[in-house]
Amino acid sequence: MRDFLNNPDQFLRHLQAAGYTGVPPQTIARCPIWKGACVEHLTQLKERLTEVHNLAGASALLGWDQQVNMPPGGAIHRAAQLATLSKLHHELFTAEETGRLLEAAEAEAQGLPYDSDDASLLRVTRHDYDLATKLPTALVAELTRVTSLAHEAWAKARANDDYAAFKPWLKQILDLTLQAAGHLGYEDRIYDALIDQYEPGMKTAQVAALFDELKAAQIPLIQAIAAQRGRIDNSILKREYPEAAQEAFGRMVARQLGYDFERGRLDRAVHPFTTGFGSNDIRITTRYESRWLPGSLFGTIHESGHAMYEQGSAAAISGTPLEGGASLGIHESQSRLWENLVGRSRAFWMYFFPRLQAAFPAPLEGVDLDTFYRAINRVEPSLIRVEADEVTYNLHIIIRFEIENDLLEGRLSVDDAPEAWNAKYEGYLGVRPPTNREGILQDVHWSGGMIGYFPTYTLGNLMSVPFFDKAVAAHPAIPDEIARGEFGTLLGWLRDNIYRHGRKYQPAELYERVTGEKISAQPYVAYLRQKYGEIYDL
Amino acid sequence: MRDFLNNPDQFLRHLQAAGYTGVPPQTIARCPIWKGACVEHLTQLKERLTEVHNLAGASALLGWDQQVNMPPGGAIHRAAQLATLSKLHHELFTAEETGRLLEAAEAEAQGLPYDSDDASLLRVTRHDYDLATKLPTALVAELTRVTSLAHEAWAKARANDDYAAFKPWLKQILDLTLQAAGHLGYEDRIYDALIDQYEPGMKTAQVAALFDELKAAQIPLIQAIAAQRGRIDNSILKREYPEAAQEAFGRMVARQLGYDFERGRLDRAVHPFTTGFGSNDIRITTRYESRWLPGSLFGTIHESGHAMYEQGSAAAISGTPLEGGASLGIHESQSRLWENLVGRSRAFWMYFFPRLQAAFPAPLEGVDLDTFYRAINRVEPSLIRVEADEVTYNLHIIIRFEIENDLLEGRLSVDDAPEAWNAKYEGYLGVRPPTNREGILQDVHWSGGMIGYFPTYTLGNLMSVPFFDKAVAAHPAIPDEIARGEFGTLLGWLRDNIYRHGRKYQPAELYERVTGEKISAQPYVAYLRQKYGEIYDL
């Protein structure tokens, strides 16, 4: 205890203070050879990208700590540290030298197999680099400045139900977003430039067609359910479930699903999230409410899905910029697959319900499996996206997608946006927000400049069902295994077919490799009809 | 829970991935004016140093997480992230541009008051910069490579009690250290160049004189105590003290001393330490052993001392490279002041002992204050430095200081070092290590290249007493306040006179400002004689 600096990190830190910290200068390796050709630039590019990746990992840890551990006083320092890391990350990645090495490496790597790690790294880097360098520095600075102020303004406007106070910020963000889209470039729709940031390669027309198909099927389904709504009571989920027991149960479920606690951890956070600093250290968070069991339970399964995806990157790409997930949509397909297709299935609860009853004997006394299963799958059209059930959730997303496009393409003004929002809620979900706080002001995304982001949630839902079906087609025993609390076959198939590739393929490309088909709404619609047709006896 | 990225950091991270993260380009402010002169270079230097400081803070957080939270899998990624941060830190700080700005800023700032933050920043930066740039890159690389391997070799050699296996590494480290000292420069003793890294401005001759004085007084004191040793039994401290209650008690004590949990936190770690990421986020760690109460109790007080020091930097220097501690010695003076002069005093336990008894009724049943006070102050010459008591500790340090100098100045070979070590233990402490594992192989420092570091522990002890005496002279009520569990006056005085200055003054300079005297061994010797004379009835 007397050794203030007597441990390796303090030692490292101390060395830094004393200027002893230089890492050995990069030795110029003799030119590596691939198929007889020298790939020196590729090698240098990889070294540089690894540094960029390490900076991103360090930033992510600072962010995790901020949500999970940081004492209030640390905020001011943390903002400064993140700003420095962010600046260095941006400078290093967008430097002309990166572009030069990338171009030279692309030339060297002509003829590398498409699926190889190196060819994939070059494709992914080209996409990232173009995105990062197409925006003029002045526009990036202005976006940073405006969204930082707009975020404060939004939080206040939402608290006060004051859309008028947020409107000028929304207007400004839309203007800047239009400028950004112009620089990023698009052929068909403005939105193409935006969605590409979150779902590489995805086109607006394709999303619109999928969403129209989905909407046409979901609206009547929801109406039919709404007519029967009184049939399911979920008040058993609002009894007293002690938080400590919720945590123990959630931890047990996550472990059994296959989330690896040797390469991750579960903590509490106000806003649950998954983050990572390399595929061997992917952490999840959740929150507990003693009188709402599903919150932490399905939240933990959802985040475990995200985390198992990132933990599954192949060893060969671990620690490189290729580790992680292909897109937000593919990511969401995995969190939803585990949360909904597995975690809200009857088979899952055939195994876990007796264990849940043992963990919570008082609130679940006399409750049977069927009652519980129906309670956790209760459908009810509502106003708030983040509280929506599996069936209605997609309509929340479709409304946002339509409004974003109408705003960007000039069919809707920011003045008229709240009314358009409310009208769509009434038309699609049969509920009308009584306030803007419960309407157009509810989400953080626009204030942060994240226009084009929402569709990824529903794309994830659409992709989750064919992925799951494909796994079951390959291994028909999976449903029986789930009913026995065994998930190894399913996880193994997902790892082999999706997780191990990390960011190598664009989302639509990955989807087609895995399923052999184009993305369609039909499998998801069929799944909903089947599951909820049975639950609601339609 | 569905919002994988719906929080500010994930948002930031996502922006980074999308290339949106650029911080606004540094606007060239109109030249700031001081006393009619433009201080543009100073302003630019400060921006650059703040980035360097932020990188160090980020590294420290990665280190903290590694000790406290990181799952085992994360190690490989963490090493890569720390290497990247360390490289960027070194490059940014030692860049020619830093030197150019520093020189220009020094010229601009001629005539700034010595005590001003800006003049102090320039002095501290000059010292750091010279230290960091005097070593040739190739030597830094070789030191990094050799110490990294030597650390592994040392751990194995210690486990196997195999000095022969460590000897070639020690030899190599000594050779590299001699080269480093040559580059760093010294006038009198080789060791001057080394100790200056940890205790800026301190000279070997001064340390040697202090240590000789101390040794002459401590050896007979220890002999006198050893003759009486049987008189104190500390077995009550080895009873069963439940860990949860230890933690709650330690937390309560730390809070009451004045450690600010709004700007810090207490966690468990295998090797207790204090670390920080800005003066508003200074964290401490400890470890618990249920059958050894003093470990966590005094460990927590010790780390709280380090932490209160760093939390006390003036607001004006918070977040700048001037925050923190003046040197390792001054740091140790504060951890020891709180641990020993406060935490092991009779007055302290007059207040806390009844509370300790309430927290641990079973093991402390029937134990009285005096018995407890004597038990926690039991003196016994022993072999292991980190387990030594307040009185014998300094002799462990003096032995290391003497051996380091003998090795560097060629009076001792690495072959003969173990025997020299054992002979000194026998001569000074009356105990002879039966193995090298309990002798020369016990400490990590040399394997890490940290030669010149040990004296700071004892310098801290020596300075702690005059600092405390000075506080009591200014506020004679302090001892009575301690006996009432009140520490605000003492902490306030330490903040005003020491903590708020951060790194502005060199240690001897700070000491003289505070005490009006040169560092001497006498006050500390007088304190030991008085306290232990009474305890041991000498």
Short structural description:
Chain A has 21 helices and five strands.
Describe what you observe in this structure.
The structure is a homodimer of 538-residue chains. Chain A has helices at 8-17, 40-68, 75-94, 96-108, 117-134, 137-160, 163-184, 190-198, 204-228, 243-257, 293-311, 328-342, 346-359, 369-375, 393-408, 417-429, 455-474, 478-483, 488-497, 507-515, 522-535, and strands spanning 33-34, 37-38, 266-268, 274-276, 282-286. Chain A has 538 residues and is mainly alpha-helical. Chain A has a domain at 239-358 and 457-526: Neurolysin, domain 3. In chain A, helix 7 crosses helix 8. At the A-B interface, helix 1, helix 2, helix 3, helix 5 and helix 6 of A face helix 1, helix 2, helix 3, helix 5 and helix 6 of B.
List the helices and strands and how they pair.
Two copies of one chain form a homodimer.
Chain A: H1 8-17, E1 33-34, E2 37-38, H2 40-68, H3 75-94, H4 96-108, H5 117-134, H6 137-160, H7 163-184, H8 190-198, H9 204-228, H10 243-257, E3 266-268, E4 274-276, E5 282-286, H11 293-311, H12 328-342, H13 346-359, H14 369-375, H15 393-408, H16 417-429, H17 455-474, H18 478-483, H19 488-497, H20 507-515, H21 522-535
Parallel strand pairs in A: 3-5
Antiparallel strand pairs in A: 1-2, 4-5
Helix pairs in contact in A: 2-3, 2-4, 4-5, 6-7, 7-8, 9-15, 9-21, 10-11, 11-12, 12-17, 13-14, 15-16, 15-17, 17-21
Core attributes:
538 residues, disordered N terminus, 61% helix, three-stranded mixed β-sheet, two-stranded antiparallel sheet, Neurolysin, domain 3, mainly alpha, 5 strands
